[in-house]
């Protein structure tokens, strides 16, 4: 299945539970707008470089559309469409007043200089400025895009519409960003895990955790897991993996990555085969890299009893089905990694208020949304006797359906 088909599969499962008719499903599934733009720049070699940028705006019944921007060779309309739809459901699960969108540029940032990345970003805004905006669609960071990219978006947008920092979130803290935003997704992942364990009267202290991907989400999740007393016993990134049964010092590993660019070669842990991080014997697995990390190829080797989806779509639909039958508890992406978009919402609020919140205030409000989201999802799970993912989708579908109907569909 393609990413979009996988999302559709989960959507259908929840729609079945809710007994939706065909028209309701079409209304909720169909994207509001899909945009494709050509981005042509002069490369550092003086050649013509042409890239394709996408923005899919899925739904705005609950508020302006919100979603990240991904720079990766795998970006295509199917993947962006799937991620845009997931954003609609994610913002609804944690009950922030946004809809869903997603964008991306098909490119390999590793092969691009900073100047080339800046040009691509600015030209993307040239192509999209009429369809984004603080009350329309608000981009944010995702894979391979960071606060610098968001700062360029804010600056380029200002050339068309004037000073509007709320057009984009995940900006640098000293340029209208929010304290706590960078760490928010990883922090939220661990808050989600703690909620689940708490509901089963289990502590996080001493739990063994493996983390796939050591970028924004994975590194922060690993850090917070360690700070909560869990043992992070294995970590991977694109270039390698390391393990240590006594637990890895995540602060030291982050310093190593900052210097060397990868977890590979970290001296205080053993090197391991990259993808074996997924199948290592541990209590909790946090896939925090890209989609389709767990598929029919490796699902039977998964030994964790809890999976918290830091990444979007890290488990294929077939693997999800199989793991559910094995009673593996899976906290789904549309709940587990919603911390980032939640603090993006706080950043947007601060930009509109022209006022700064303290980090404590941000983290406290994030905790509230993650806790409420968990209990709201659990109500559906218990009422319909369904897995966490279907529970989260059912909650989200109902919130979006209700908003759409109340606004009216003349
Ligand atoms: P990132 O670019 O900061 O990090 C990605 C990490 O994954 C890197 O360490 C990279 O080396 C690693 N990686 C790539 N391929 C790998 C592989 N095959 N095996 C192991 N590691 C691999 O990206 P990010 O922002 O941390 O996003 C990660 C995931 O989380 C994505 O699915 C993204 O959509 C999702 N997400 C991100 C946010 C956010 O706020 N950044 C919010 C919600 C969801």
Set out the fold topology:
Elements lengths: L2 H15 L4 H8 L3 E10 L5 E12 L5 E7 L5 H17 L5 E7 L8 H15 L8 E5 L5 H15 L19 H19 L8 E5 L3 H12 L3 E7 L2 E4 L6 H11 L9 E3 L11 E4 L18 E3 L8 H9 L3 E3 L1 H4 L2 H15 L5 H26 L3 H20 L3
Parallel strand pairs: 3-4, 3-5, 6-7, 6-10, 10-11, 11-12
Antiparallel strand pairs: 1-2, 2-4, 7-8, 8-9
The structure holds nicotinamide-adenine-dinucleotide.
The site of nicotinamide-adenine-dinucleotide has 24 residues, from helix 7 and strand 7.
Can you tag this structure with a few keywords?
five-stranded mixed beta sheet; Rossmann fold; seven-stranded mixed beta sheet; globular; 12 strands; alpha/beta; 410 residues
Q: According to CATH, what is the class of the domain at 184-336?
A: Alpha Beta
CATH architecture of the domain at 184-336: 3-Layer(aba) Sandwich
Low-confidence stretches: none
Number of helices: 13
Determine the fraction of residues in helical runs and give it as a percent range.
40-55%
Strand arrangement across the biggest beta sheet? 9-8-7-6-10-11-12
Task: Give the class from helix and strand content and strand pairing.
Answer: alpha/beta
> What is the 3D shape?
globular
CATH topology of the domain at 184-336: Rossmann fold
What gap, in angstroms, lies between the N and C termini?
35 Å
CATH superfamily of the domain at 184-336: NAD(P)-binding Rossmann-like Domain
Number of strands: 12
Bound molecules: nicotinamide-adenine-dinucleotide
Mean of all residue-level pLDDT scores: 97
SSE arrangement, N to C: HHEEEHEHEHHEHEEHEEEHEHHHH
Largest sheet: 7 strands, mixed
Task: Please give the radius of gyration in angstroms.
Answer: 20 Å
Tell me what portion of residues adopts beta-strand conformation. 15-25%
């Amino acid at each position: 299945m393609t990413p979009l088909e996988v999302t559709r599969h989960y959507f259908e499962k929840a729609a079945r539970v809710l007994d939706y008719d065909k028209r309701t499903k079409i209304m909720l599934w169909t994207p509001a707008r899909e945009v494709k733009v050509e981005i042509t720049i002069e490369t550092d070699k003086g050649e013509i470089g042409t890239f394709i940028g996408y923005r899919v705006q899925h739904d705005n019944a609950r508020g302006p559309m919100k979603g990240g921007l991904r720079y990766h060779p795998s970006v295509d309309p199917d993947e962006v469409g799937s991620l845009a739809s997931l954003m609609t459901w994610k913002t609804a699960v944690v009950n922030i007043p946004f809809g869903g969108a997603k964008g991306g540029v098909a490119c390999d940032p590793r092969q691009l200089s900073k100047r080339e990345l800046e040009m691509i970003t600015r030209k993307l805004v040239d192509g999209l400025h009429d369809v984004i905006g603080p009350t329309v669609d608000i981009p944010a960071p995702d894979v391979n895009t960071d606060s610098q990219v968001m700062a360029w978006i804010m600056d380029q947008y200002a050339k068309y519409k004037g000073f509007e920092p709320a057009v984009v979130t995940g900006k640098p803290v000293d340029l209208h960003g929010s304290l706590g935003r960078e760490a928010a997704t990883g922090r939220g992942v661990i808050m989600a895990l703690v909620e689940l364990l708490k509901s089963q009267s289990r502590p996080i202290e001493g739990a063994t955790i493996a983390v796939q991907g050591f970028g924004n989400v994975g590194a922060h999740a690993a850090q917070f897991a360690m700070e909560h007393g869990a043992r992070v016993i294995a970590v991977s990134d694109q270039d390698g993996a390391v393990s240590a049964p006594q637990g890895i010092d995540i602060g030291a590993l982050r310093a190593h990555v900052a210097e060397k660019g990868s977890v590979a070669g970290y001296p205080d842990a053993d090197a391991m085969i990259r993808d074996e991080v997924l199948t290592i014997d541990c209590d909790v697995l946090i896939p925090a890299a890209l989609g389709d990390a767990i598929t029919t190829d490796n699902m039977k080797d998964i030994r964790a009893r809890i999976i918290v989806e830091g990444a979007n779509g890290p488990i294929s639909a077939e693997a999800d089905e199989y793991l559910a039958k094995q009673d593996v508890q899976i906290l789904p992406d549309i709940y587990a990694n919603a911390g980032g978009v939640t603090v993006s919402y706080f950043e947007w609020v601060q930009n509109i208020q022209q006022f700064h919140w303290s980090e404590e205030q941000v983290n406290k409000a994030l905790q509230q949304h993650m806790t409420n989201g968990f209990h709201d999802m659990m109500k559906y799970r218990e009422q319909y006797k369904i897995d966490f993912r279907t529970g989260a989708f059912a909650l989200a579908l109902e919130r979006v359906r209700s908003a759409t109907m109340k606004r009216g569909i003349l």
